[in-house]
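Q: How would the C-alpha cells look for this protein?
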Amino acid sequence: MIPSPTVPDVQLIVNKNQITLIQDGKQTDQVSFEIIQTPYDFQLKTNSQYQNGYLGNSGLRISRNRLFIDKGMANDFPGFEFKRME
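A: Here is the predicted structure in C-alpha cell form.
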C-alpha cells in the first residue's frame, strides 16, 4: 500500500471576495471567488488557473467554524477541512 503524501502547512485567508493561499509561510496564490447554491449543495467558483485547481469549482460545506472543500467526484480526490482561526 502506498502511504498518503504529507499534507503541507496551508492557510486560506478569506475576505469578502478573495482567497489568499499561504503555504509554508509564503503567499503562493490569490484568487477571486463566489459561492453558488446548487440543487444539492454549494459550489465554490474561483478564477484559479488549471494548474492551481485545488480551489477551482469544488463542492463546499460550511458550518459556523469550519469549511470543507470536497474535490472528489467519482474519483478518490482529496477533501480538505479548514477550521476558523481568530
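The chain has a mean pLDDT of 74.

The beta strands are 10-14, 18-23, 26-37, 42-46, 58-62, 66-70, 79-83.

Upvote if useful.
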